[in-house]
Amino acid sequence: MIIKVLGSAAGGGFPQWNCNGFHSSKVRAGVAGYKARLQSSLAVSADGSNWVLLNASPDIRQQINETPELQPAKAGALRNSPIKAVVLTNADVDHITGLLSLREGQPFSIYAADRVLATLNANSIFEVLARDKVSRNTFELDQPTRLEGGGVDLGLVVEAFAVPGKVALFLEKGDAGNNFGSRDGDTIGLKVTDAKTGKSFFYIPGVAEIDPPLADKIRGADLIFLDGTLFVDDEMLTQGLLNKTGKRMGHISVSGPDGSISALRQLNVKRRIYVHINNSNPILDENSEARKVVDAAGWEVGFDGMEVRL
Ligand code: MLT
Ligand code: MN
């Protein structure tokens, strides 16, 4: 199984279009130790020729242009694509709007929890993906689903499971008391298994906390790509960027007693990689103290173009 990080940044990317904050300004100026990053998406393939996108970011066109494996085959039909399926982990703008660039009648399959499919169904702009060509498939949570798309068995089995989180920003209702109207399935994690080899990894780009059921699920895993949005819960406030904490946004922090380094310390996950990294996160600077903390804890910071084979 081949896994490629197409975009390692959170919503907005790095640098973000309207941000002249501490880190965005540095990467724009070409300061050493900073890499630009596209928005949150992975690609995975069991056979090296048919691919599944895990989330479809607004940067998808650039991601395809920078990833030869995702480009049309030179032989065969004039219009073709190795992208056979798209799996969505929530309805965030950074995870669903790339679908709009996959129009033009190419057959593929979308897989998501019912709450996320309901959002696509409620927004007529997604009808640009003709339903007779692009199927919409509901994950039954906690059950294995074998992926297929474009008439091809993709050789991958996905188990989708609800994780602590929040409904997409543009769907928030009410207040923090009811977690803004969030329900199970608004944010899911994925366990992706190669049907032939049995090897598997976890992809959880948005999660508010590692609660006991989630800890049990990931214990002993070979590989996880995890929500690395923020290093410290209040860094957006202290950097003067936005009046919101990570907790308010449904994202666990990397550091601190409630953070992901601490939560995974005893879980024996062999390889741990941060993705969905926000433009406020000091781990974006390879020379930062925060980066030393992450390195010392045995975590990796995902980057665009990163490839992992399992
Ligand atoms: C998030 O991950 O919290 C969202 O992508 C935020 C947003 O929609 O800007
Ligand atoms: Mn996001």
Polypeptide structure, described:
Belongs to the PqqB family. May be involved in the transport of PQQ or its precursor to the periplasm. Keywords: PQQ biosynthesis, Transport. InterPro entries: Metallo-B-lactamas, PQQ_synth_PqqB, RibonucZ/Hydroxyglut_hydro. Pathway: Cofactor biosynthesis; pyrroloquinoline quinone biosynthesis. With about 300 residues, the chain is an alpha/beta fold. It has one domain: Metallo-beta-lactamase, Chain A. The chain has nine helices and 14 strands. The chain has helices at about 20-30, 60-65, 95, 115-120, 210-220, 235-240, 245-250, 260-265, 290-295; strands at about 1-5, 40-45, 50-55, 85, 110, 135-140, 145-150, 150-160, 190-195, 200-205, 225, 270-275, 300, 305-310. Strands 6-5-4-3-2-1-14 form a seven-stranded mixed sheet. Strands 7-8-9-10-11-12-13 form a seven-stranded mixed sheet. The radius of gyration is 18 Å and the shape is globular. The mean pLDDT is about 95. The site of D-malate has 8 residues, from helix 3.
